[in-house]
Amino acid sequence: MKANPRNLMLGLMIPGIALTGIILASYGYLALSPVSRRHLDRVSFRLLVYALVAHMVFGATVLVMTLHVYRDWSCSLLSFITNSALQFSGGMFFCVALNLPLVLAHGINGQKTEKYYVLGTAFVCAVCNGVAYAGGALGWNSSEHVCWYRNRNPAKTLRWVVGTQTFWIFLVSAGEIVAFLSIVWYLFRYTHIVRPVYPRSSPYLSRSKSRSDAAGSTIFMYRGTILRIAIYPLMSALMNMTGALFDLYVVQHPILVKHNAGLDIADLAMFSIRPLAYGLLAATDPSFINAVNALRRGEVSSTDADSPPSAVLSTVIDMRDSSSTVQSDVYMNMDTLSIKSNARTSVVEAMPVLNAVPAPVPIHSVVLGGAIESLPRQSMEPAQRDVARHI
Questions:
Q1: Domains parsed from the chain with CATH numbers
Q2: Which of the residues 169, 235, 319, 344 has the least number of beta carbons within 10 Å of its own beta carbon?
Q3: CB 212 within 8 A of CB 186
């Protein structure tokens, strides 16, 4: 039975838009409650929300183009919106990948750079697609029977597609892969080269003067969350690069694609499955799951200095030299300290070891397998309170 490309597109796009809408509504509901809101306070999570909103816009315009064929000026406008939404979502996932090594390896404040991620991506999208729209390159494509790049002159169309779309897609995808590989390298180096040198029986691991070693220790602590976050840019790189290759082939061989139903269906499937794929990933985001669990348990929101925030990492004492703002991680020997799960008792019992740390290193927090005991927050800068908020 021959597949109908239009039905295939609708069958993938509509569930994806519905799922994305439900996920965004759930995010909004959780953000209203102080109990669950703190679990969503993460840079990469907000970038994910921006990308999902862009996918909602993308899906809505595609549905309009699929259900109602416009060949006038509105076709160019719909093409502009669709291409801009796709580029913006890809840029957001690239910023998610870029933010990880910047924060973990170079100590950049992710919350301060977040606005530059959004504004920079929006600027690139506006320039690329604005130039194509103003130049009359967008409109009805008779080969694909969609509103996209006009195919009146294949050579000219190819230049428009490469200059305003595929070049940037390949550049962003390469950046996503490089950023992910750098995180994997830091983690591999720390776990297989640096960390085995120091036995767990020692009171704490020696402070490393190497930036890569410091990054590796932080990544090791947050490895579960970091690797889960990295799935977004990896998925984005895979889909964007595959879609860009399809686009180049379509522009270069319009007649062949027109008579090749299998290739046409594959192109439409890769194009239409994006909202559904990202919606499924967003539904299993660790911040979202933690926020839902917190709301179900009715946790008390930590809004004052005496309330301990939540923890999702292994046992570690987070310290920062106030003069050099260089973070050092001191791993504690749980067998020697016999620290209990009670956060306040843990701080008291840990003090003898903490006092042995050379001054002037202020101790900010003790992470104890699921609970953090924070010292008075007045002595801490916001960027020093919780590394997880910056990734």
A1: 5-297 (1.20.1070.10), 316-390 (no CATH)
A2: 344
A3: yes
